[in-house]
Design goal:
heterodimer, A: alpha+beta, 3-stranded antiparallel β-sheet, 3 strands, 15% strand, globular, B: 4 domains, 28 helices
């Protein structure tokens, strides 16, 4: 369990969840699936990390969950991005690009 | 700001609706699981396998849920509350254990907090004076044993010293009940007044609560000329109902009207600080004049160092000034000044005893912890399955550890509350012990510091006794648990070892306490066994000082004769006599010599002086060894006589008969020795008597008190009324309420010792009970664990007796180990008691033997009960049941 968690850079799960939610209202399972698909199966989101992350994001007011009907006609909790969440995502994205760029520069010089 | 506020609101809302939220979370995760299952089925897995695979992938549902809940409110709080709920439920189910645990923690913490309050009042809290660290006690070592100084010494030292800001003192030779308060419409009452120098209260930094201190002029007058008095707070409250109008009014004291100048604050009690066990009601001025200088060594002296001055520096300076003073005033008494910090002087004597109490209570607390640890271990063992299930359900080790600690801390906290109640009761009882001569005892109370201490002890105890069982959890790996509780296996090794160690240490600790208490009890008995030299039982004393009407010695002598005759004629009275000082009550001494022998001024025989009447020796029970008692005819018209004690007779006329010899220096005349009496323990029971001499009351005016001593077959309460009636015609204003049994004087003298012995015996009895419970617990548990083993052994031929012997032997082995460790520890630790022992060495074989006997007996009983149970095991049943 511990190994796969460290596959993600710390703090990036929140950002990834926010990013996937820009595509619309999604439930937890779908968020996990989507991250996996978009990363071409490289990033696997552990359920043990996903749900605490969702709780944390909701509590911070960046996402909002509400109950709805899923494709297979079952009650599921769908999350959507709040305006605060969008702001958060943009700052996170900016920071992410800065960091990645910095790392790339360091690695390029080596 | 606003977003963090909103977050807090959200958090709180989550917290309040946490049950609903929890259900939601579960539903959400269930949905996720269903999706996962479908995914696996799409990949061609059968449904049940797919579900299992989904669960495997999702991991621990409960743990994930818990992790998710973390974000709601601090996990710690929610867990703690959960632990608390769980603990309460558990404890309610195990009411017996809970009650027992709370009870022993309560007793332990109560003892701890009480002892702490004593330590706090005696040693930690500063003396109730202004800047007490600068206060010093000045003892005059040249004046033994009183260590008092002369007025000239004080004035001389004060003038020349550059390290002392001031010196002051009080008149040390006042008597209890010296002042008779009459009038005011109430019954006459004898009060105790102390004369203090005018600067005494300012030096200590004590300001009157009402009114004023003595003025400088009042401190200069001839003694007795200034008729002013200060009242103690207690007298003001008790006798005058805290009436502020008393200041400025007149009181009739010893038939003289006196002006009440002020009332002193409640915090000031000269008795409590300087003369423990003495109740001081009044303060009178003691002038520092040539007149009072002639009194000789009469002052107990305190000083205040200048800021920055140290005791060693002041000591050096005073030593040289004192030498110079002696050189300049060869006729004055010698002065050999020794300075000690006042706090040290007041409390130093008790320090070793308090230290012993602190150690004892610490040991008691350790035993309490060991005992609870043991019980808790036994309970953990019984709860292995529960623990295993919780581990399987995802409880982390830390979480279980915390659960265990929550339980023990909660228990000890409840115990701490009980302990606090006990401590409050205990300190109340202690502070009301007015007759015990331990300084500052009245100020023993549970203050905030003690409260904090109690809390710390309670929590510390909880952690200490919870830790050992909690640390046993790693051995509770799921496998082991399942194996361990399988049929036929015995108790896990590690745990049984831990339990054995705890029981052994309990016994060892109890050993130390029992030896300590035993040595002190033996010393106490030795002290009580001391031949006092008088017989206090059935004897009582009453102040009957002649009033001012009897203003000539003839009138006074007639009064004494009359009073003695009247009292002796009462039924039930076996003897009556007069004295100015009761045994253990005072220590005035004079230097005397044998006539015909030359002494230099340092080598006179110092002898305690008592002024007595005929019949006194008989009444108090002092035995006449040679010669005769005084008679009514030993008055001013007849030759001066004296009675001395055996020690003095031996010292002055070694190898010769003292009767018929002449003593010089006892008053202004030579006195012929007419009798020799037995020695009396006059200072303390533990100290030998020294030289004593008795002067006939009819031949001396040099006394300030007259005590009537009565020996009777009846208790004092019964003859007090009759004595009052008999004396009423000659002394109408007599308060017989103050009839004091002479036994009280003895009791007061041994009171600090009794106090320590009482507390320490209580502690060691408690320790013994706990230690025996500890052994019982271990053996009893091991028997219940070994039921099957014992069953098998009995089935293949072991007799009941054999099994019983085996278990008792097991018990005694534990006890023996504990006692060996305890013996060694006691041997080393009891050295600390040396100063407290009397007539017993720290290695007193009898005490050690008694300890071994007591502990072996206790251990044998503790082992016998489970052994009997074991021997009654029915092999068939034992093997059939799990």
């Amino acid at each position: 369990m511990g190994n796969s968690k460290s596959d993600l850079l710390p703090g990036t799960l929140d950002m990834l969840v926010l990013k996937t939610l820009t595509r619309g209202h999604l439930h937890g399972y779908a968020i996990g699936q989507l991250i996996q698909q978009l990363s071409e199966d490289i990033l696997q989101v552990e359920e043990g990390s996903l749900y605490p992350a969702l709780q944390r994001l909701e509590l911070n007011g960046w996402i909002e969950g509400e109950w709805g009907q899923s494709a297979n006609n079952r009650r599921a909790r769908f999350y959507k991005l709040t305006p605060d969440g969008r702001k958060k995502l943009s700052t996170e994205t900016q920071r992410y690009h800065q960091v990645i760029g910095a790392i790339a520069r360091v690695m390029g010089n080596a | 700001m606003s977003s963090s506020l909103r977050r807090l609101r959200l958090r709180l809302r989550y917290w309040f609706h946490h049950r609903a939220r929890q259900n939601q979370l579960h539903e959400e995760m269930e949905y996720h699981l269903a999706n996962l299952t479908e995914e696996f089925m799409d990949n061609g897995m059968p449904e049940n396998q797919a579900r299992a695979a989904a669960h495997r992938k999702f991991g621990n549902l409960a743990l994930t849920a818990e992790d998710s809940r973390v974000t709601w409110l601090s996990r710690w709080v929610s867990d703690a509350l959960q632990d608390l709920r769980y603990t309460l439920r558990n404890l309610r189910r195990d009411a017996g254990f809970t009650t027992f645990a709370i009870l022993i923690v309560g007793l332990g913490v109560g003892a701890c907090a009480t002892v702490f309050s004593i330590v706090n009042a005696l040693l930690l809290r500063p003396l109730p004076f202004h800047e007490p660290s600068r206060l010093v006690w000045l003892a005059n070592l040249a004046s033994k044993p009183e260590q008092t100084a002369q007025v000239g010494h004080i004035l001389g030292l004060r003038d020349k010293s550059r390290t002392l800001a001031d010196l002051a003192g009080y008149f040390a030779y006042f008597g209890n009940g010296d002042v008779k308060l009459t009038g005011g419409g109430s019954e006459p009452e004898r009060l105790t007044g102390v004369r203090v120098t005018q600067n005494f209260l300012p030096l200590l930094g004590v300001n009157p609560l009402l009114g004023r201190n003595f003025t400088v002029d009042e401190g200069r007058e001839r003694i007795g000329r200034t008729k002013v008095v200060l009242l103690s707070f207690n007298l003001w409250k008790r006798r005058f109902n805290s009436d502020p109008a008393i200041v400025g009014s007149q009181l009739t004291l010893n038939e003289t009207p006196m002006l009440v100048a002020g009332v002193l604050p409640e915090t000031f009690d000269l008795g409590a600080v300087f003369l423990p066990g003495t109740r001081v009601d009044l303060y009178l001025p003691f002038p520092l004049t040539e007149e009072t200088d002639r009194f000789g060594n009469t002052l107990a002296v305190v000083g205040r160092l200048k800021p920055g001055a140290t005791v060693p520096a002041a000591q050096d300076e005073l030593t040289s000034i004192a030498k110079e003073l002696e050189r300049l005033n060869p006729k004055r008494n010698d002065i050999q000044a020794q300075l000690t910090v006042l706090d040290q002087h007041v409390n130093g004597r008790l320090r070793p005893a308090v230290f012993v109490l602190v150690c004892a209570v610490g040991v008691v607390m350790l035993i309490v912890c060991a005992n609870l640890s043991n019980l808790q271990l036994a309970r953990t063992a019984n709860r292995q399955r529960e623990m295993a299930v919780r581990v399987a359900l995802g409880a982390g080790r830390q979480r279980l550890l915390r659960q265990m600690l929550t339980e023990s801390v909660l228990l000890s906290f409840a115990g701490g509350l009980l302990g606090l109640v006990l401590a409050v009761a205990g300190t109340r009882a202690l502070s009301s012990l007015t007759t015990v001569s331990i300084p500052m005892l009245a100020s023993v109370r549970v203050d905030p510091a003690a409260l904090l201490f109690t809390l710390a002890v309670a929590i510390g105890t909880g952690i200490l006794f919870g830790l050992m069982p909690a640390l046993q959890i790693p051995t509770l790996a799921v496998h082991d648990t399942l194996k361990d509780s399988a049929r036929g296996s015995t108790e896990g090794h590690r745990r049984s070892w831990a339990r054995g160690t705890l029981a052994v240490s309990e016994i060892a600790l109890a050993c130390v306490l029992v030896v300590g208490a035993g040595l002190l009890i033996r010393s106490f008995l030795r002290v009580l066994d001391v031949d006092l030299g008088f017989r206090p039982e059935k004897t009582a004393a009453l102040r009957i000082d002649p009033s001012r009407r009897y203003n000539t010695s003839t009138l006074r002598n007639n009064y004494y004769t009359d009073a003695l005759h009247r009292v002796r004629s009462l039924t039930g009275i076996q003897g009556a006599g007069l004295t100015d000082v009761l045994p253990l009550g005072g220590d005035r001494s004079w230097g005397v010599g044998a006539k015909g022998q030359l002494y230099d001024r340092h080598h006179y025989h110092e002898a305690f002086v008592r002024i007595v009447s005929e019949g006194y020796f008989n009444a108090i029970g002092i035995s006449l060894k040679a010669g005769r008692d005084f008679s009514e005819r030993d008055d001013s018209k007849n030759p001066p006589v004296i009675v001395i004690n055996e020690t003095m007779a031996r010292a002055m006329w070694p190898g010769r008969s003292a009767v018929g010899q002449t003593v010089q220096g006892a008053g202004n005349v030579d006195r012929e020795v007419v009798g020799v009496v037995g020695d009396v323990h006059h200072l303390a029971l533990e100290q030998a008597s020294g030289n004593e001499m008795y002067l006939p009351i009819r031949q001396s005016g040099d006394y300030s008190a007259v005590d009537l001593v009565v020996r009777s077959t009846l208790p004092p309460a019964q003859f007090a009324g009759a004595v009052r009636e008999a004396l009423r015609p000659i002394e109408p204003e007599l308060s017989t309420r103050e009839f004091r049994p002479v036994q009280d004087l003895v009791d007061k003298s041994v009171s600090p010792r009794r106090f320590i012995v009482f507390l320490l015996s209580g502690f060691s009895a408690f320790a013994l009970v706990l230690a025996s419970l500890g052994i019982y617990g271990v053996i009893s548990y091991s028997v219940s664990q070994r039921t099957q083993e014992i069953g098998i052994r009995m089935a293949i031929g072991a007799s009941a007796g054999h099994v019983q012997r085996d278990i008792i032997f097991q018990t005694l082995r534990l006890a023996a180990l504990g006692m060996i460790i305890g013996l060694i520890a006691s041997w080393m630790l009891t050295r600390a008691l040396t100063g407290l022992l009397f007539g017993v060495s720290t290695t007193d074989p009898l005490t050690y033997l008694a300890m071994l006997t007591v502990l072996t007996t206790v251990a044998a009983i503790a082992g016998y009960l489970p052994a009997r149970r074991a021997s009654r095991i029915d092999p068939m049943q034992a093997l059939r049941t799990n």
